[in-house]
C-alpha cells in the first residue's frame, strides 16, 4: 500500500523568510503524481502545487516550489518570502496514474510570525 | 463559478438518526469522491465514483453509503450515525476517473463538519 509521511507536525517561519516542509512517500508505481494542498483556518482544501513523477524538472508556482527527489521518494515544499496568509495546515498527497484516490499525509501546521 | 458545493456545512445529530450530506459540482466532472478528515490522520477516502452509476469503496467505507444517479451529484448517506463518525467531511471531483485519472487535480468542496452525539 502506498503511504505518505510528513514528519514535521508543526513548523514556524518568520515573515519574509523561507521555509521547507518535508514529505516522503512509498510506492512501487512508476507513474504517479504528487500534490501539496493548503488548508487555511476556513478548512477549504486548496491546491498549491503538483508534480508529475515522469518530469525531472521541479514544479514552481510563484513563491512555492518543490524539491522532487524521485530515487529518495522525497517531495518537499519550499515557500519563499513567507506571508501571514501562508499560515495553514499543509498536506502532501499522492496519486497513481491509474487510480483516483489521493493518499494524504498527516499534515504540517505552518505558523508565520512577524 | 466552477465549484464543488456541500450541504449542510455544519450538522449536529444524535446516534442512529439517518442523515444525508449532499455534494454537487458544476464542472461536468466524471469523478467524485468523499473523504473524512480526523486529527492526526489526514484525509482518508470513504467512497468514490468513476461516473454515473459506478461507485466503489475507499479505505474507510464502513457505516456509509453513496449513490451516483446524476453526474453532478454524489450524496453521502449515514444510515445510522455513531459518535465515531464525528468528523470533517470533504467531497472532491476531478475531470476523469478512468485509467488516466491519477493525473487529474481533485477540487474540493468547503467541507461539512459533523458531530454525532
Helices and strands in order:
The complex is a heterodimer of chains A (114) and B (117).
Chain A lengths: L2 E3 L4 E5 L4 E3 L2 E3 L5 E8 L6 E7 L7 E2 L2 E6 L4 E6 L8 E9 L6 E2 L3 E6 L1
Parallel strand pairs in A: 2-12
Antiparallel strand pairs in A: 1-4, 3-9, 5-6, 5-10, 7-8, 8-9, 10-11, 10-12
Chain B lengths: L3 E4 L2 E4 L5 E7 L5 E8 L3 E10 L2 E4 L7 E2 L9 E3 L8 E8 L12 E2 L3 E5 L1
Parallel strand pairs in B: 2-11
Antiparallel strand pairs in B: 1-3, 3-8, 4-5, 4-9, 5-6, 7-8, 9-10, 9-11
What's a quick, concise take on this entry?
The complex is a heterodimer of chains A (114) and B (117). By secondary structure, chain A is mainly beta. Chain A is built from no helices and twelve strands.
**Terminus-to-terminus distance of chain A:** 41 Å
What letter string, H or E per element, gives the SSE order of chain A?
EEEEEEEEEEEE
Main sheet characteristics of chain B: 7 strands, mixed
Strand residue content of chain B: over 45%
How many helix segments of chain A?
Answer: 0
Extract low-pLDDT stretches of chain A: none
Structural class given helices, strands, pairing of chain B? mainly beta
Helix percent band of chain A:
under 10%
Number of strands of chain A: 12
Q: Strand content of the residues of chain A, in percent?
A: over 45%
Can you tell me the residue ranges of chain B where pLDDT is under 50 for at least 5 consecutive residues?
A: none
Residues in helices of chain B, as a percent range: under 10%
Radius of gyration of chain B: 13 Å
Question: How many beta-strand elements of chain B?
Answer: 11
Amino acid at each position: 500500500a502506498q503511504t505518505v509521511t510528513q514528519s514535521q507536525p508543526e513548523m514556524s517561519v518568520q515573515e519574509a523568510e523561507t521555509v521547507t516542509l518535508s514529505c516522503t512517500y512509498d510506492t512501487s508505481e512508476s507513474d504517479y503524481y504528487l500534490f501539496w494542498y493548503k488548508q487555511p483556518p476556513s478548512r477549504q482544501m486548496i491546491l498549491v502545487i503538483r508534480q508529475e513523477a515522469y518530469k525531472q524538472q521541479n514544479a514552481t508556482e510563484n513563491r512555492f516550489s518543490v524539491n522532487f527527489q524521485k530515487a529518495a521518494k522525497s517531495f518537499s515544499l519550499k515557500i519563499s518570502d513567507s506571508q501571514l496568509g501562508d499560515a495553514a495546515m499543509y498536506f502532501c498527497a499522492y496519486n497513481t496514474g491509474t487510480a483516483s484516490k489521493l493518499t494524504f499525509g498527516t499534515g504540517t501546521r505552518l505558523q508565520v510570525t512577524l | 463559478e466552477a465549484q464543488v458545493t456541500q450541504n449542510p456545512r455544519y450538522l449536529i445529530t444524535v446516534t442512529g438518526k439517518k442523515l444525508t450530506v449532499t455534494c454537487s459540482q458544476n464542472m461536468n466532472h466524471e469523478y467524485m469522491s468523499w473523504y473524512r478528515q480526523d486529527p492526526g490522520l489526514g484525509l482518508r477516502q470513504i467512497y468514490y465514483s468513476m461516473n454515473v452509476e459506478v461507485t466503489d469503496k475507499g479505505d474507510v467505507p464502513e457505516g456509509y453509503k453513496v449513490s451516483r444517479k446524476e453526474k453532478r451529484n454524489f450524496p453521502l448517506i449515514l444510515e445510522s450515525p455513531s459518535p465515531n463518525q464525528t468528523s470533517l467531511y470533504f467531497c472532491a471531483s476531478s475531470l476523469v476517473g478512468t485509467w488516466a485519472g491519477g493525473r487529474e487535480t481533485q477540487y474540493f468542496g468547503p467541507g461539512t463538519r459533523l458531530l454525532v452525539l
